[in-house]
Specification:
The protein is mainly α. The chain has a single domain, classed as Serine Threonine Protein Phosphatase 5, Tetratricopeptide repeat, CATH 1.25.40. The chain is about 75% helix and about 0% strand. It is built from six helices and no strands. The radius of gyration is 15 Å and the shape is globular. The termini are far apart. The relative contact order is 0.11. This is Pentatricopeptide repeat-containing protein. One of its GO terms (biological process) is RNA modification. GO terms for molecular function: RNA binding. Keywords: Repeat.
């Protein structure tokens, strides 16, 4: 990869991160979906901060199923991603699911 291509990818990645941040502040399914598509296109979903922001955007837009589907795609979960998913469940009034996630998180040794 040339230096120019590397720089373009770097700037695109941070543009997606900014879009994700704005979609968590003003939740909308359209914004979250666009950010998700862009994140897939440039490979941003390999980075947990981008995943956490996208999960939060889906949750705040009241699309818990989309947040759950995104969470299920990742096997390398850190405590921040687990907490974002627990918070998403609580925000969407799925308290039993939130408790199940908490139990899974502690059983996996991630705390």
């Amino acid at each position: 990869m040339s230096q120019r291509d590397s720089y373009r990818l770097y700037t695109q990645f941070y543009d997606v991160i900014e879009l994700l941040k704005s979609s968590t502040a003003r939740p909308s399914l359209v914004t979250a979906t666009i950010a998700h598509c862009l994140a897939i296109e440039i490979g941003a979903l390999a980075h947990l901060p981008a995943c956490t922001s996208l999960l939060t955007a889906y949750s705040r837009a009241k699309y818990f199923i989309s947040a759950l589907a995104l969470f299920d795609e990742f096997c390398d979960r850190d405590v921040i991603l687990w907490n974002a998913m627990i918070n998403a469940a609580v925000e969407n009034k799925s308290y039993n699911v939130a408790m199940q996630f908490f139990v899974e998180m502690t059983e996996s040794g991630c705390y």
